[in-house]
Amino acid sequence: MTTSSRMTYAFARDGGLPFSRFFARVHPKLDVPLESLALTNLVVLIFGLIFLGSSSAFNAIVSASVVALGLSYGIPVAINCLRGRKMLPATRHFILPEWFGWFANLLGVSYVLLTTVLFVFPPGLPVTGSSMNYCIVAFGIVLMISMIQWFVDGRKNFTGPKVELDDHVLTAVESPVNVRAASTGQRQLDNEKAAESAR
């Protein structure tokens, strides 16, 4: 709950959720994102009820989350390969030999593709309505909801984490959030703290 509610809060703070201003609030006395915590509890409760109602629907949701996690790792690696591994900074701390870097990246993309296909296969033959793997349906529903959210609200309000482009590397910049400002849905950047932490 602690991790999920903070991730929900952070995503809402960056404008990535519906009703972001509501879920980005932090309780001024408790210093906890209560609305995000309530949303996380509600989602867990809904998943529990889905499991009680239909184990195949619950398994489809879990499989879809595994597929989504794999794709979230595979897409940046695939983009890196398609760009010829030229976006990697020359001054990085860990450098593989060129051939081994290509091998590791291509192996990773191949593994993601293989596991994605395997996770959407039905568990056995013949495929019937009760033995069907509904992972692709659950993944498609989440994808459609995400696309609708993006076009309705996200592209106007989603800012993403604050980053700096330095030598083709995105380095996270600390952006402290004022608790009172977050509780009203507004973000304030403390420039003095950011300047001190950058030194």
Automatic annotation (TrEMBL):
GO terms for cellular component: membrane. Keywords: Membrane, Transmembrane, Transmembrane helix, Transport. Pfam families: AA_permease_2. It is a multi-pass membrane protein. InterPro entries: AA/rel_permease1 (IPR002293). Gene3D superfamilies: Amino acid/polyamine transporter I. GO terms for molecular function: transmembrane transporter activity. Its main location: membrane. It is found in: Membrane. The chain crosses the membrane at residues 32-52, 58-79, 99-119, 131-152. This is Amino acid permease/ SLC12A domain-containing protein. It comes from Friedmanniomyces endolithicus. The lineage of its organism: Eukaryota, Fungi, Dikarya, Ascomycota, Pezizomycotina.
